[in-house]
Amino acid sequence: MLEKPLGISFAETPAGLVVDDLVADGNADLSDDVYLGDTLMSVNDFACEGKTFDAIMDVIIDAQGPVKLVLAHEAVAPEPAAAPTPAPAPTPAPAAVPNGPTNVTLAFVEAGSTIPVAEASLDGNVVLRTAMLDGGRELYDTWGKLMNCGGAGQCGTCVVRVLEGGDLLSERTDAEVGHLGSGKERNSYRLACQVEPSKGAQGRCVVEMKPTKK
């Protein structure tokens, strides 16, 4: 119910009378029930559909006391829903690093034998060539003793064969593949100057000294 003066300006449209303007701080403006674009449906139970502008205005003018307006609020399109925030990509788990110090026990056997003749330890700071020479192990044949490259991976004379525990050692290098070839049988042959223990590796490795190349 609104007291007069209503403070509403109506406009005639094909859909009927609509609220075209509101007087600032007028009765309609202060009611919070009337909005621009509302369609007037009835006045004091007088149906406005199909009625002329003048006929409806006469009802409002002739009304005594508060005026009962029924308004159809203009449909307001809902704001589009915000796109869901994509879930952050999972952070890759850090590569697993074996726990504990690197310590590989080397068991040396003569060519063609499986009986260890000596043992030594190989930690992360020592290559196999150094461990063998420091321990007095036979690494080079006569030619290798004279012509070896000093551990640079160039001569291919410090050949050993890993019989067990190859997974505890570093991957074969290009120098090893170049000198020794590759394949299931050839992969057990290594250049001692290129071999070091894998990080965190612990276990036993059997190494054949001066093996017969196949």
Automatic annotation (TrEMBL):
GO terms for cellular component: mitochondrion
Protein name according to UniProt: 2Fe-2S ferredoxin-type domain-containing protein
Keyword vocabulary terms for this entry: 2Fe-2S, Iron, Iron-sulfur, Metal-binding
InterPro entries xrefs: 2Fe-2S_ferredoxin-like_sf, 2Fe-2S_ferredoxin-type, Adrenodoxin-like, Beta-grasp_dom_sf, PDZ, PDZ_sf
Family indicated by similarity: Belongs to the adrenodoxin/putidaredoxin family.
Species assigned in the record: Pycnococcus provasolii
CDD domains tied to this protein: fer2, PDZ_canonical
GO molecular function, one term: electron transfer activity
A matching Pfam family: Fer2
Gene Ontology terms describing biological process: P450-containing electron transport chain
Boundaries of every PDZ domain copy: 1-75
Cofactor(s) listed in the protein's UniProt record: [2Fe-2S] cluster
Residue ranges of every copy of the 2Fe-2S ferredoxin-type domain listed in the record: 102-213
Superkingdom of this protein's organism: Eukaryota
